[in-house]
Design brief:
It is a single chain. By secondary structure, this protein is mostly beta strands. It has two domains: 8-47, no CATH class; 70-143, OB fold (Dihydrolipoamide Acetyltransferase, E2P) (Beta Barrel). The chain contains one helix and eleven strands, in the order αβββββββββββ. The chain has one helix at residues 8-21; strands at 25-30, 33-38, 42-47, 70-72, 77-80, 96-97, 102-108, 111-116, 121-126, 133-134, 139-143. The strands form three sheets. It has a four-stranded antiparallel beta sheet with strand order 4-11-9-6, with no helix packed on it. Strands 8-7-5-10 form a four-stranded antiparallel beta sheet, with no helix packed on it. It starts with 7 loop residues before the first helix and ends with a strand.
Length: 144
């Protein structure tokens, strides 16, 4: 993978979005390079494949936190449950899914990123609605 070259214009645009939206962090990915800005002056730059099963299974939660087996968002964005308005959802509660199958789309910076299932199983819960704004690490679905 090539070395990440810092694009000051992109970073300034992302920083402006943090201010405009009152978000605490924002992440941008292009060509396999990811830039994440966190409010408070910390800028984290990492070279990583986009949406590599960074959608992780969370540990069991007994205190009302993240549900057990939750698939969490690897980025800030907007969740779309179908490929386009009016199309059937990628998955429904009760559907059997295979590892790598698209669960939903996360839009970030006008880029549509399919979120692959990190494992095979059955969709037990869908925790977001179509068009919901999503934060990094937010639970999206439960697959068992």
């Amino acid at each position: 993978m090539s070395k990440l070259e810092v694009n000051e214009k992109v970073i300034r645009t992302l920083a402006g979005l943090l201010d405009e939206t009152d978000l605490t962090e924002i992440e941008y990915e292009a060509d396999g390079h990811r830039i994440r800005l966190v409010r408070g002056g910390t800028v984290v730059q990492a070279i990583a494949p986009a949406l590599a099963p960074a959608a992780i299974s969370a540990p069991a939660a007994s205190d009302g936190g993240i549900p057990a087996n939750a698939i969490t968002s690897p980025m800030v964005g907007t969740a779309y449950l179908a490929a386009e308005p009016g199309a059937p959802d990628f998955v429904k509660v009760g559907d059997r899914v295979n590892e790598g199958q698209t669960l939903l789309i996360l839009e970030a910076m006008k880029v549509m990123n399919p979120l692959p299932s990190p494992k095979s199983g059955v969709v037990k819960q869908i925790l977001v609605s179509d068009g919901d704004p999503i934060e990094f690490g937010e639970p999206l679905m439960v697959i068992e």
